[in-house]
Amino acid sequence: MRARRIAAAAAGILLTVGLTAAQGATAQGAPARVTAPCEGTYTIVVGGTGSSWNNDGFTGNIQQHVGYPTQIPNGASTRAGVNELNRLVRDQRAACPGQHVKMAGYSLGAGVVHVWVTENWQTFDNVNAILVSDPKRQGPPGANGGAVPFGGIIGAPLAGADRFFGNVPVKTICHWDYVCDESAGIWTYPYNHVHNYPEDFNMDHHNDSANEVWYNGAWYPA
Question: Most exposed: 33, 39, 44, 82, by fewest CB within 10 Å?
Fold first, then answer.
């Protein structure tokens, strides 16, 4: 068991190298807020380790990309991402009170969105979330755990797995990927983590009310 957790922690550290190479970009400071119209859905996305606000892999009708320090996947970078996401969505909500917010994140960015929902669902309505390869994923319905146990090495709030989403619709996607499912095996990383989500980065493929789990090609209710 100890060896397994050491391997898992090492995989969390390895995430820095693997995704930086895959994304081919360095983290940048937060961009100036993009002024978005109040019509339709306000879509905001958060990239993974090594991404930047202008190179995070997300496509589709997106109004805002979140800039935050992504070089090292740890509690500090996650907290910075949560704070910036919170600032952007609340500024937009203040300008457009009735507008729906759709937020999405990949890998470290999914951890950011996950934490934001957990911390804000009681004070922010008319929002939904899409989590692609969420390191805080608690597993498919009926399972206990499932996410890589980053633990104290990575630090809160990134460490740990939960489903504390309140009444927010959340779509979780994890396909044979060690980052979001320890049972997949460390040998699936980084290839599956980088290549198993070809259509999931297109925000136009996700509706505003999806509340479901896609796990290893199978659908489950949330």
Answer: 39
pTM of the model: 0.85
Burial class (CB in 10 A: 0-12, 13-18, 19+), 114: buried
What is the 3 state secondary structure string of the chain?
CHHHHHHHHHHHHHHHHHHHHHHCCCCCCCCCCCCCCCCCCEEEEECCCCCECCECCCECCCCEECCCCCCCCCHHHHHHHHHHHHHHHHHHHHHCCCCCEEEEEECHHHHHHHHHHHHHCCCCCCEEEEEECCCCCCCCCCCCCCCCCCHHHHCCCCCCCCCCCCCCCEEEEECCCCCCCHHHCHHHCCHHHHHCCCCCCEHHHCCCCCCEEEECCEEEEC
The listed CATH number (3.40.1130, 3.40.50, 2.60.40, 3.30.60) that belongs to domain 2-221: 3.40.50
Q: Where are the domains of the chain?
A: 2-221
Q: Give tens-digit pLDDT for 77-116.
A: 999 999 999 999 999 999 999 999 999 999 999 999 999 9
Instruction: Tell me what pLDDT residue 67 has.
Output: 97
d(CA 22, CA 24): 6
Task: Kindly state the tokens that stand for 2.
Answer: 């100890």
> How much is the mean pLDDT over the chain?
84
Tens-place pLDDT, residues 114-129: 999 999 999 999 999 9
> Rounded CA gap, 189 and 25, in Å?
19
